[in-house]
Design a protein that fits this description.
Layout: E1 2-8, H1 12-15, H2 17-22, H3 26-35, E2 41-47, H4 57-61, E3 65-69, H5 79-90, E4 94-98, H6 105-111, E5 118-129, E6 143-153, E7 163-170, E8 175-184, E9 187-192, H7 205-218, H8 236-241
Parallel strand pairs: 1-2, 1-3, 3-4, 4-9
Antiparallel strand pairs: 5-6, 5-7, 7-8, 8-9
Length: 249
């Protein structure tokens, strides 16, 4: 089983009535629905209004892949929690950042840049598959017509992706790196641009397939228990003599 935690601010659900007309169970609810068709996924919901933002250590330690949806409440995620999430990625946890999560604290920590971009109100978007052999693109056609979506455009201030799977084209002429993969430590990161809260993007069957594919791609091949590395010139026996250990992976 792949243990998935779907994290959502759960703020717009309380303030934007049209969101609940599109996603009656909220954004976290539709994401859970997308994943629930896969029998090998064990899904947990966490929202920012829960104690410890829904992410105490026991949840973080039992999560293989996290999906993060955030927009207007990034500043209220505690810095310590953001660091814990980023550290779990370095230790092997996979993470998928959706839409406006490009400005979330964990994403910016993992990227080391501002992660800023150009944006404007809704426009027609076509998603292009740039790497059809990539696991996240399995079963996805060469192009996906998304219809109305919030325009995100270059320059997108991120490190060069290790793998660029999708790019978005908007009718206004803008281009955007819409599906980006990185490795960080022993963990994997996927950023996926579509998903504005008042557009029915998560009902698109190809978008749903991409999200499920991304969860399987991001699942850890190995997990470390510590960020410590074996100091140069020391053996595990010498570490043990000093009360320290190195994880086996």
């Amino acid at each position: 089983m792949i243990r998935v935690t779907v994290w959502n601010e759960n703020k717009h659900e309380k303030e934007i009535p049209e969101l609940l007309e599109i996603y009656p169970q909220g954004l976290h609810g539709v994401l859970q629905e997308i994943l629930s068709v896969d029998d090998d996924l064990e899904i947990r919901i966490a929202t920012q209004d829960m104690p410890e933002c829904g992410l105490p250590d026991e949840v973080l330690d039992s999560t293989d892949v996290m999906i993060w949806w955030g927009h207007c409440n990034h500043h209220n995620v505690p810095d310590e929690l953001a660091r814990k999430v980023a550290d779990r990625v370095l230790l092997g946890m996979g993470i998928i950042f959706l839409h406006s999560a490009h400005h979330s604290k964990p994403f910016r920590l993992l990227m080391g840049t501002t992660c800023s971009l150009r944006w404007r109100d809704n426009d027609y978007e076509r998603l292009w598959c740039l790497d059809p052999s990539h696991p996240i693109a399995a079963g996805v056609p060469a192009t996906v017509e998304l219809g109305t979506e919030e325009m995100y455009g270059e320059f997108f201030d991120i490190p060069q992706p290790d793998e660029l799977v999708f790019a978005g084209w908007f009718r206004g002429g803008e281009l955007f790196r819409s599906g980006c993969c990185w490795k960080r430590g022993t963990g994997k990161v996927f950023y996926f641009q579509p998903g504005h809260e008042t557009n029915p993007i998560y009902h698109n069957p190809h978008v749903r397939r991409i999200i499920r594919n991304a969860v399987h791609w991001a699942a850890p091949a190995c997990r470390r228990s510590t960020l410590w590395c074996l100091p140069m010139g020391q053996t595990t026996e010498e570490l043990a003599a000093n009360g320290m250990s190195i994880d086996q992976y």
